[in-house]
Amino acid sequence: MLGTGGGGDVRTGALAAKRAIQAYGEVPLVALAELPDDALVVPLSGIGAPTVSQEMIHGEDEPRRIAEEVERIFGRPPSAVMSSEIGGSNGVAPVAWAAQLGLPLLDADGMGRAFPEVQMVSMYVAGLPADLVIMSDIVGNVVTIRPIDGLWSERLARAVCVAAGSHALMADYVLTAAGARGAVIEGTVSRAIAIGRSTERTAEPLRALRAELGAVRLITGKLTDVERRTAGGFVRGTATIDGTGDDRDRVLTLELQNENLVALEDGQVKAMVPDLITVVDTETAAAVPTEGLRYGQRVTVLAWPCDPLWRTPKGLDTAGPRAFGYDLDYVPIEELAKEESGG
What we know:
It holds the Pfam family S-Me-THD_C. By secondary structure, the chain is α+β, with helices and mostly antiparallel strands. It folds into 2 domains: about 10-190, CV3147-like domain (CV3147-like fold); about 205-340, CV3147-like (Beta Barrel), CATH 2.40.390.10. About 30% of the residues lie in helices and about 30% in strands. The chain contains 11 helices and 16 strands. The protein has helices spanning about 10-25, 50-55, 60-75, 90-100, 120-125, 150-165, 175-180, 190-200, 205-215, 315-320, 335-340, and strands at about 30, 40-50, 80-85, 105-110, 135, 140-145, 165-170, 175, 185, 215-230, 235-245, 250-255, 260-265, 270, 275-280, 300-305. The strands form 2 sheets. Strands 1, 2, 3, 4, 5, 6, 7, 8 and 9 form a 9-stranded mixed sheet that branches. The chain has a 7-stranded antiparallel sheet with strand order 14-13-12-11-10-16-15. A hairpin with a 2-residue loop joins strand 10 and strand 11 (about 235-245). The longest helix has 15 residues, at about 10-25. The protein is globular and about 60 Å long. The model has no long low-confidence stretch (mean pLDDT about 95).
């Protein structure tokens, strides 16, 4: 749900997590306050096109290679794994990586959702130096990058990712627990668990989900057109939903770059990044990733507020609509919904 269409198909990460727990044991979930100041936290995520990640699945060697490189650089092993982005497979696969490494999982992440580019993390917004990226691919290559800033970390990591087949495992912003305080978004693993549980044992999962998220319903309808292309380590495209029932005669278009970025109706913006926009199955309320969008699906599009960090000037400069090339001034989903209702 928090992947807003991206972060990779959660089913792949969930299977890996279950298998790793069976093989290595349960993974403790720890709060940042429980770690000593000098504990090394390693944010891990898959980087690349979600469509590729469905076929090029991570093995057990990539996290081990990255952990070994962290220990070589810092002179001590990592103390905890953190999800770089809590959305999609990147939100649940860190459970597997933590199990394989015998480490706890930090109840935090760097986005509170999913974003497509390396510098689009809370640590960058908080002003931490983006001076180390470690990557490993499925054939055994390990690449350590010392970029001069966050934008260069994206350019260089993306180039390595493309060379690796548009998919690799990445650690960025290796940081101490002391450095992570105030620079990561805490409680997001617990938040994801609560969202998942909200739709259990209820006859109206969509209603329960909206209540848990505090989400605005943008449209309910049928997918009538999906256009996707994979290039430069991203999936880009559009999806069109024709309204049904009370939304008959309405048409909503979603702009995609791994994630759902902008929702438009008749040329008017209904929701925009960095707020979260997610497509869900109307009957089950299960999230539908961008690579899973298919003609004829009955879906509902939801939108809800992002973490306040992304609404700061630096947050909007990093991951607002203009960061993705849209000539739009950011308007929070609450205000757009109020305008829609005439309030």
